Amino acid sequence: DLRFFLLILVVFILSFGVTYHANLYPNAPQQWSVLKDVLYYPYWQMYGELSLENIEGKEPSEDAGTCTKNETLWRLGKMERCPEKSFLAVMVMAAFLLLTNVLLLNLLIAMFSDTVKKVHDNSEKEWRFHRFSLVYEYYNKPFLFQPLNILVYIFWPFRRYFCKEDSFRKKLNEGDREALSKLQREAMEVYRRSGWTLEKDKIDKETQTTV
């Protein structure tokens, strides 16, 4: 679940980051630093660092001489480039915050809740499976330690030949299948009756509460 959620989150961050960068810094040169700038705004905005001055294209830093819009200067690397004013970038930020802080967070909670419910529903089945694996593992292990366990391996063919009945058999005969099928039907009927009883009690309680 977490891998699937992180994949969706990366898609959102990259898509909105590219939109931010294309509107705030149009015609930017193709450099590896662009990838850092693409990830910077959307990633930190998820934690509340909105950088509204840059998103809205305000220029207090240009007056202070820390950035410039002169293409010659920022292309030569002498000064940082100031962001452009873009109303679309503000709208994109509003949509990004809504999707990440509300929808994606609720999606993560829903995915984890569904996983916990599935684990809880299958917990008894998983326990029975692992218990069977443990019992079957020790059933096939020789009871003598090494090197005396070689005697057990020598004895096993005789036991297989003279002891036809295996108490740990995997295949059932016809009588065992009928008995198992009857047991399953009886268990299903008991479960169905208990469900009806619980539903009837629930309806009675709701009726009494309403009255």
UniProtKB/TrEMBL annotation:
UniProt keywords, alphabetically: Receptor
GO cellular component term, pick one: plasma membrane
InterPro entries, alphabetized: TRPM
MF (Gene Ontology): ligand-gated calcium channel activity
Matching PANTHER family: TRANSIENT RECEPTOR POTENTIAL CATION CHANNEL SUBFAMILY M MEMBER-LIKE 2, TRANSIENT RECEPTOR POTENTIAL CATION CHANNEL, SUBFAMILY M, MEMBER 6
Annotated protein name in UniProt: Transient receptor potential cation channel subfamily M member 3
Species the sequence originates in: Magallana gigas (Pacific oyster)
Organism phylogeny: Eukaryota, Metazoa, Spiralia, Lophotrochozoa, Mollusca
